[in-house]
Amino acid sequence: MIRFLSITLSLQLLFTAYLSAQDVGKLTADEIYTQARNIPKEKNNYPKIISLLKLALEKNQDNADARLFLGRAYTWNGNLDSARFQFNQVIAKGRQRAEAYSAISDLEFWNGNAFRALEHINQALLNDPNSPEFLVKKAKVLTAMNDDKQALALLKDYTSKNPGQDSVKKYYDVLKNRNTKNIISLGYEYVYFDKRFNDPWHYTTLDYTRKTSFGPLTGRLIYANRFAKEGFQGELEAYPSFSKKVNAYVGFGYAQSSIFPKFRTGASLYYNFEKGFDAEAGFRHLNFDSLDVSLAVIGIGKYVKNWYFNIQSYISVTSNVPSNSVTLNVRRYFSERFNYVGFQIGTGISPDDRLRNIDQSANYRAYKLGLSYARDIFTNMSLATTALYYREQFLPNTWGNQLGVNVTLNKRF
């Protein structure tokens, strides 16, 4: 009985499908195209959309709308060569060329073929040299090819002649903001102690960074007021880039005041792996009046869409000063690196935390928790804030709390 019902149901489904196919077969090419357009653009529907569009083209091979949509459906379904064929057919017949060039250039760009995408865009611009759509597409491809200079020149020339064209001007402004060469930063941090020190600490920094062809260079002047003393420290940092996958950090600092290390040096090598992973290996060295501290640095990070996860460890290689630390940092970026929200948790004090590097040889424990937030408040100007809490041991069996709040203003130009 069950087998009989199953056979009956299968025959009904086949008959329904046959009638449906018969109904579609009676439609015109335009009507079949419209039916395909109305199907939800979901992965499991792509084969059905493709079948309908092929049927429409059997009825009318010159239906450019159906052929363009078939090319897009092939693109979504991963049939790239079939998609290229359909788009090139439209271009060859001279109908709706702009749409075809737009679709095929997107296909190549999305699949990492920037040079092919640029060839199609240039062909489109031969037909319409002032097309805002293709000028923006060309600028985006040039940017992906690390040719920001040509992209900026292209858009600058167009916007000077067509100031009212909003789509081009909007992307030109985005590109200009992304390609600033200088950054000036002014920061202040206040640290409160409930037990360890009677007076709070004050810490002010003034940075200037210049982007160069081999990487950013930074000069930094630091003022601090702690232990009821004042002092300054100067630093120079460089971030040379050797390739798309390899870059580095080199830093040196000097201070005459006893509230800072007399010398601080450091270097790291960074490697960018596939699938958003990166790694760091390096060292830091701090020279105080009474001791030297040397640490190895290792870290690993991972980008997941707009999120960045990083765990970094500083391991003491100075036998009499085992000052180790481990920190997990998490950031969620918005438009770019000056707009984010972040979180950190860890143990120990990092040698890169300038404010908390002090002359002490005791190996006391510390646990930290921090939150950070940064956003643009004006064009090319951002405000960053950080709150950092420490639960620290500063004497045997004696613990205290410290809370630091930092505010930094960054101006890019």
From TrEMBL:
The keyword Membrane does not apply. InterPro entries: Beta-barrel_YaiO (IPR030887), TPR-like_helical_dom_sf (IPR011990). Residues 1-21 form the signal peptide. Gene3D superfamilies: Tetratricopeptide repeat domain (1.25.40.10). Keywords: Signal. Residues 181-353 form the YaiO beta-barrel domain. This is YaiO family outer membrane beta-barrel protein. It comes from Pedobacter ureilyticus.
